[in-house]
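Researcher: Good morning. I'm working through a list of sequences from a screen, and I'd like to move beyond sequence-only analysis. For each chain I'm collecting a predicted structure so we can compare shapes side by side. This is the next one on the list. No need for commentary yet; just the structure.
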Amino acid sequence: MTIIEQIIAKHSNQAAVKPGDIVDVFIDTRAARDFGGANVVKNLRDNGLTVADPGKTIFTFDCNPGGSDQKYAENQHKCRLYARENNIRIYDVDSGIGTHLAIDNGLAWPGSTFVSTDSHANIMGAIASFGQGMGDQDIAAAWAKGAVWFKVPASVKINLTGKRAAGVSAKDIILNLLSIFGANKLLGYSVEIYGEEMEKLTLAERITIASMGTEMGAIIIIFPTSPLLLAELKQLTGRDYPEVTAAPDAKYEKHFDIDLSTFVPMVARPGHPHDDISIDSVRNTKIDSGFIGSCTNGRIEDLRITAAILKGRKVAPGVVLKIVPSTDAIWTQAMNEGLIQTFKEAGVMVSNAGCAGCAAGQVGQNGPGEVTISTGNRNFEGKQGKGFVYLASPAVVAASAVAGYITTPDQIPDQPALFTPVAKAATEVRHAKEKAQKPTVVEGTVWIIPKDDIDTDMIFHNRYLTITDIKEMGQYAFDNLKGFEDFAKRANPGDIVITQKNFGAGSSRQQAVDCFLSLGVSCIVAESYGAIYERNAINAAMPILTYDPELLAKAEVKHGDKVRIDFVTGELTNLTNQKHTLINRFYDAQLAIYKNGGLL
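Model: Good morning. Structure tokens for this chain:
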């Protein structure tokens, strides 16, 4: 049998298996991440299932170790609560990438089985282990039953002949293979890689290649063990592991002999990991940022290579380089070896261990139009942000960050490329906004919100702060204020909000004003305002007024009444009961800014 067939047979109590067989495979370690973990918990609870063996079950929080996203923070908390109830181990936000932790801590080993809600769980092929990424229902089943059904894949054998050329990294090897096979020629296969040079690969190099099996469409890229690998694993875990390799008479559906000596340093062009081309074809392409990390290239070897290039150099002006080690142990090792100091002296941002921008959950994202060179495994459009992402080795990313453009370590210039300002037209024509006549008398239906100290997080929560288009802001007004979460859905243009003391306390966010402009709220009336909020509202020409509670009481305004307010005189008329009163009118500067359509 091939390697994959041996492992599946052993874990399904079968004497032998062949491609196409469907068997229940016992899983040695069953993981769920912060991405998907909460759904695993929900599936278990909703179906009345319990965890078969907590000792073989783990959570790994690697997608958003910073908890900087509200949904991730919520999901992590749900997982923590479930873990406490069921005595499940958590590799929490201080730990790093789950698949790397599994290898380094002996949770996966040669010949073992491992599943996770991580599409790159097949990275275990680096150590001759069967790893699979699965959906949350599959993982819930594995947690509850200890096994999942699996269809035995056909195997392909790739034999890399010849010597590796100088300057060709493990990342270049997998990019060259992707350029040959694309994203679907090996779709659904278990790919075994052999060759004299492959036996010399370090664990980190094997991980780099195996990690991108998913991008090749393969079930897994799997290497037989080597003496070097077994020695590294023993150093990490303190354990001796057996050799794992295919039988001499193993049957493969396809066999490829490829000359490794023809491989060259490559990059994947933005949009597709398999759109690979020699680096010479894109050399000198200007970049805005670089990223070194992910499950593909966040090992200590990768960081050492990076530090050697950055030592005594600086990241080019206008370029941002972000480095994220794959595990906290690697982070600590990098600190002890002085690598972190080298990074900081070069002007690098170093973040805590995790998946980083690859998972859209930590540092490493880019903005529209931004050109990034990254060691990640994917560069699909929108995967790492809204810019353009090239994939390359750590050496190329580091060299490019210093140069300011895509290059190799042997061609780093003495002076970095600088950004050239876009020349302005000789004559600039300003188009002033047309100032619509602003009404000084408004009528609208009243929303009574009887609360003091309504802060800006209640008005417009910080999870929406990346929104810059006022048209999109209205839908989130008050969605974090208890009892008024549906305000935006029910409010109509012209409505008037009447509330109490210190409205708009808290942060300086302009969105807490602009969301009401977006909805067409005609004015806000409060006893008092947070100091920054008051300025923001006046400057944005959002009508706000204050009142004396005793005077407002004369109009007997109730929720749902229709009222008229004159900003200039301060007269308030309850059109529902025809009662009148006075509130504080606009002061002169406020009125001038309002008529101007805003401060600017």
